[in-house]
Amino acid sequence: MTEEEFATFYAQAAGRITGQVYVMTGDFHEAQDVVQEAFVRAWDRRRALDRGLGPEAWVRTVAWRLAVSRWRRARRGRLAWLRSGGPPPAGAPDPGMVDVAAALRRLPARQRQCAALYYVCDLPVERIAAETGLSAGTVKTHLSRARAGLAASLDHPVDASGGRDA
């Protein structure tokens, strides 16, 4: 991919990937940070990225992995504070949180990721399986559980068909 092609790719995909990662993480600023880091890594590999082979999926996967790594590091930091007997560092509350974002955050990470890839990114089950390294059956299980979890969190009955064919 040339520099001009990469610039076009970035302009077309950065906002979309940031929105997708935001849905997966529940933190817009974190999503912006990890997507920017993923694009920096993609820039270093731009000659190897082929537009036909899904550079957007590559960037989204790298951004998700970066977000998971940051979450683990922050969690270890909070646990270290608790073990030392001191209070954990205070985080700023998110006044703009909506019910759906809160419900998504309560889902296990894999369910949230699969649901975001399916409903926000509009990827088919097979593509989600390829991006996450899960089997198609496992993706369908995560989607089913995510729908049930969201319905319970939002006090809505679960549609037996799930709204879409999973």
TrEMBL record:
Top-level taxon of origin: Bacteria
InterPro entries, sorted: RNA_pol_sigma-70-like, RNA_pol_sigma-E_actinobac, RNA_pol_sigma70_r2, RNA_pol_sigma70_r4_t2, RNA_pol_sigma_r2, RNA_pol_sigma_r3/r4-like, WH-like_DNA-bd_sf
SUPFAM superfamilies cross-referenced by the UniProt entry: Sigma2 domain of RNA polymerase sigma factors, Sigma3 and sigma4 domains of RNA polymerase sigma factors
Residue ranges of domain RNA polymerase sigma factor 70 region 4 type in the record: 100-148
Pfam families: Sigma70_r2, Sigma70_r4_2
Coiled coil (residue ranges): none
Domain RNA polymerase sigma-70 region: 10-76
Keywords linked to the UniProt accession: DNA-binding, Sigma factor, Transcription, Transcription regulation
NCBIfam families the UniProt entry points to: SigE-fam_strep
Similarity field: Belongs to the sigma-70 factor family. ECF subfamily.
Protein name per UniProt: SigE family RNA polymerase sigma factor
Lineage: Bacteria, Bacillati, Actinomycetota, Actinomycetes, Kitasatosporales
